[in-house]
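In this supplementary section we document a worked example of the pipeline. Step one takes a protein sequence of length 353 as its only input; no multiple sequence alignment statistics are reported here. Step two produces a three-dimensional model, which step three serialises into structure tokens for compact storage. The input and output of this example are shown verbatim.
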Amino acid sequence: MSAGNFLVRTCSAGVSPAVFPTPGCAKKPAGRRRYENIAFLWKLDKFHFATRIRRQRCTVGSLLSIILTLIITCLTSACGKRGGEKIVVGSKNFTEQIVLAELFAQQVEAHSALRVERRLNLGGTFICHDALVSGKIDLYPEYTGTALTAILNDPVQNAPSEVFRRVQEEYRARFNVEVMPPLGFNNTFAMIVRGDDADKLHLRTISDVAPYAAKWRAGFGYEFMERPDGYRGWVAAYGLHFTGAPRILDLGLLYRALEDKQVDLVAGNSTDGVIASLHMVALEDDRHYFPPYEAVPLVRRATLEKHPDVRDAIGALAGKISVDEMRLMNYAVDGEHRDPADVVGAFRKAKGL
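The serialised model returned by step three reads:
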């Protein structure tokens, strides 16, 4: 399960200085020479430092002073540069995933000298999983229930600790991927209806929908229709029969379709920030069909071995995000149209990360 496309950003905070070679000096001709309006120009990345020397006798002391100034300027400029090594953070194609991936990226940038490339909005679970295992990305956010059923093809389990243990062990053994500790919130599937319908028909649970389903149109994302913990098992567990086949909708259009009455029920995420603002209602999963979907970072073990700072940076996020905090961040992006990087930056500052 899992934020429009966003441009790659490079942060230079908290990095070690790179080492630049001292610029060579041309051989001095013998004898005295006067330098008239000569500019010594040294190119430092995108900046230029120039020293104009007035007409004067060139002495060893003045040359050493100029060279020393250039070296100091070079090293000062280098302090903002990251090393040559990089890691790649990926995400699925919905807001929360983009927010979490940006959080991972900022954490690594703040606590290591690595450059971080962001490859966000890649697609669904299987695309991100394949990119991780093949080494195209180094880490991305996932959900334990999704990993259990969609990737491992295990039957649904309801105990969060058992699901986490199973996923962690199998990902290490099968994919050489580390499932790091949960971030602190569970983002389960949520069956969403319009608030007016919930009020009028007294809808509180998914079971309450059964008497009306035959006259209702449902809308779901492609992945929900295909995954083992998705549509087929869900309608069987609740005995639901909708009017015609469900509409397959892009995840970004689900709530618009519901609001415009193109459909009467959609499968969203429990942490979606716009649910309350659009006066919609998430129905209770009263038959406990869905497994726990604790948000976790998935990181290639080869990356952790090569860059131990990544483990420390990402590990510091364990248990730091509540359901309400995640919902607020999602709403800041979806409802207030704020830049995910700014939203994440404010969250990290508030949490002292």
